[in-house]
Design a protein that fits this description.
The protein has a single domain, classed as MetI-like fold, CATH 1.10.3720.10. Helix content is about 75%, strand content about 0%. It has helices at about 1-40, 60-65, 70-105, 105-120, 120-135, 140-165, 170-180, 185-195, 195-210, 215-220, 230-235, 245-265, 265-275, and strands at about 235, 240. β1 (about 235) and β2 (about 240) form a beta hairpin.
């Protein structure tokens, strides 16, 4: 009887867990599915209430993005700035995090400053950043965006990677020293490969932060360097919300991030698990 009772409790527990997980997945997927279906509707039915469920899919909203709006420019601007800022933040963040993890560079004071810089609201540095960029004539330039994005991406990378480097055994590095490797050789051929999952996870999260950044891009960009979040916000016009174009732009915006996440999902899961255990 106890065996059957234990099996019954196990089945009930698993069923409840599956129901909760299914609900969580639907909570995330249903809005995306709704947006995707809206992006395929024609302008004559996109605003209908109640919504039209059966319709012939059309791609006029997607074609309009490239024929009537400079969406390709917004996309390229976001991609360029995101790749550059992620690369710089990951490179210098890795070196700084390794130095802090292994040699306690700056002590607790520096780590506290890094954490404070990461958690500080962007609006606090927005006005000083705008004034500096205006003085140096960098408004509506890629340099302005890269510098402003690094102000929060670099602290984020350093703080995340400190934990990952702490998880790499020091004995492995000491064994490399015994075999005659220098500190730089040990860093590049031993430590960094072992911390690669954590670095990949941090780089992806950094790219997400850069890709979705709005407030700096709103103030520091113009017609030449406008990014996707600002371009998408332009579909909220004085005539109302352009639902078809907005939905199509949203799908095209989240697409590259989803593809990138799936392409490095093995490293991402390992990196996030390592950070969670640490």
């Amino acid at each position: 009887m106890n065996i059957f009772g234990k099996k019954s409790r196990t089945i009930i527990t698993q069923t409840i867990a599956y129901i909760i997980l299914t609900g969580a997945v639907l909570l995330v997927l249903l809005p995306i599915i709704w947006i995707f279906l809206t992006s395929l509707k024609s302008k004559s039915i996109v605003y209908r209430i109640p919504p039209v469920w059966l319709f012939k899919p059309k791609f006029q909203n997607y074609t309009a993005l490239f024929s009537e709006y400079p969406f390709s420019k917004y996309f390229l601007n976001s991609a360029l700035v995101g790749i550059i800022t992620t690369t710089l933040a990951t490179l210098f963040g890795s070196l700084a995090a390794y130095s802090i993890s292994r040699y306690n560079t700056g002590g607790n004071g520096l780590q506290g400053f890094i954490l404070n810089s990461y958690t500080m609201p962007s609006v606090v540095v927005l006005i000083p950043m705008f004034m500096l960029m205006q003085v140096f004539g960098l408004i509506d330039s890629y340099i302005a965006l890269i510098i402003s994005y690094l102000s929060f991406l670099l602290p984020f990378n350093i703080w995340m990677l400190i934990g990952y480097f702490d998880g790499v055994s020091r004995e492995i590095e000491e064994a490399a020293f015994v075999d005659g490797a220098t500190k730089l050789q040990t860093l590049f051929y031993v430590t960094l490969p072992l911390a690669a999952p954590g670095i990949a996870a941090t780089a992806l999260l950094s790219f997400l932060l850069s890709w979705n950044e709005f407030i700096f891009a709103l103030i520091l960009t113009g017609n030449k360097t406008r990014t996707l979040p600002i371009g998408i916000a332009n579909f909220l016009t004085h005539r109302g919300v352009l639902m078809g174009e907005l939905s199509a732009a949203t799908i095209l915006t989240i697409g590259p991030v989803v593809i990138l996440a799936f392409s490095i999902r093995r490293y991402l899961v390992r990196g996030l698990s390592l950070g969670g255990i640490k």
